[in-house]
Design a protein that fits this description.
Largest sheet: 3 strands, antiparallel
Strand order of the largest sheet: 2-4-3
Number of helices: 13
Shape: elongated
Helix content: 55-70%
Order of helices and strands: HEEHHHEEHHHEHHHHHH
CATH superfamily of the domain at 29-130: Trigger factor ribosome-binding domain
Length: 328
């Protein structure tokens, strides 16, 4: 019996491709990782009592002098939510760090906590969520980079041709104007920037790592706050900004999330390339870089700031990676 085949349903094929595209988009965001933290009541109880006694000093309850209310009345007056919050603030940091080491986790974000059990007289249990360091798989990045540079060269060539045509057209219309200056071909810095933009896009398209949901959310929030800060400098409210662009706050959030996602993907790709190529930055290079922008006294002060030194080192490492990509 001959095998029959179902006729191709173009509409169905289109829907399948749409779903596949949606699935690929989803895969760009990785689920959060987590650890479970258990705080024994024997550990919680003394901190709980200490917290209540500390709060009691400011409690003024009917029938009692300020600071002299009984333990149970203080609990009721202050509220368990506030007491529990302060107890956790004291106990959680160390417990979280210990659990992270025990479970051999590598978070890249500050955690968010979900309480599972917070009953008096019993062990307290919480779950801590965080984004782990993304897994970045780089294929033949050199091939991808070279292809991107070829596309950049075509773009530059086409743009320069357009500039020449524009200059020729203007010259015909107005012979007295300095068209050579007005229609100057792309310069070295512009060409470098075009190369980098094409390389970045090529790398992200080819190797886009999945970014943790919490990392993306936290960085998007930070990006939003930076935008709000910039708007304030120009005395523009967020509402005015949205109205001028004719977008909603949800659309702005999605836009910022897209920008942040691409930036984070590129950051991790660049870090992986520098790791693969064993690129490093020495302390001497860091000192030399600082010396370019500060006097001797300032240099000595900055050398004591480890955060600043790490920032300079990261910037220099990124520059080395960019130079490597541009040299391919």
């Amino acid at each position: 019996m001959a095998k029959t085949t179902k006729p191709v349903d173009k509409k169905e094929t289109k829907e399948v491709k749409k779903e596949e595209k949606k699935e690929r988009k989803k895969s760009l965001i990785a689920p959060n990782d987590s650890v479970k933290i258990t705080l024994a009541w024997t550990t919680v109880e003394p901190v709980y009592k200490k917290t209540v006694n500390k709060l009691a000093k400011n409690v003024k309850a009917e029938g009692f002098r300020i600071g002299k209310a009984p333990f149970a009345i203080v609990e009721k007056h202050v509220g368990l939510e506030k007491i529990i919050d302060q107890v956790l603030r004291e106990l959680i940091p160390q417990a979280y760090e210990e659990q992270i080491k025990k479970d051999n986790k590598k978070p890249i974000t500050s955690p968010e906590f979900n309480p599972l059990a917070l009953e008096k007289g019993q062990d307290w249990v919480l779950e801590a969520y965080f984004s782990p360091i993304p897994e970045v798989k780089i294929g033949d990045y050199k091939k991808t980079t070279k292809k991107s540079k070829e596309e950049a060269a075509k773009f530059v060539s086409n743009r320069n041709e357009e500039i020449k045509k524009e200059a020729a057209a203007c010259k015909t219309e107005d012979k007295d104007h300095d068209h050579a200056h007005a229609h100057k071909e792309l310069g070295e810095n512009e060409i470098k920037e075009i190369n980098l933009q094409h390389i970045f896009k090529g790398l992200v398209d080819a190797f886009a790592p999945a970014i943790g949901e919490l990392l993306l959310r936290q960085e998007t929030q930070a990006e939003y706050e930076r935008l709000v800060g910039q708007l304030k400098q120009y005395k523009i409210t967020t509402e005015d900004y949205l109205a001028r662009r004719q977008i909603t706050i949800d659309q702005l959030s999605q836009e910022l999330a897209g920008v942040v996602l691409s930036r984070l993907q590129l950051d991790f790709i660049m870090a992986e390339i520098s790791k693969m190529e064993k690129l490093t930055v020495s302390d001497e290079e860091v000192k030399a870089e600082i010396a370019k922008f500060a006097d001797e006294k300032m240099v000595k002060e900055l050398e004591k700031n480890q955060d600043y030194l790490n920032q300079v080192k990261a910037t220099l490492l990124q520059k080395k990676t960019l130079d490597l990509l541009l040299s391919l």
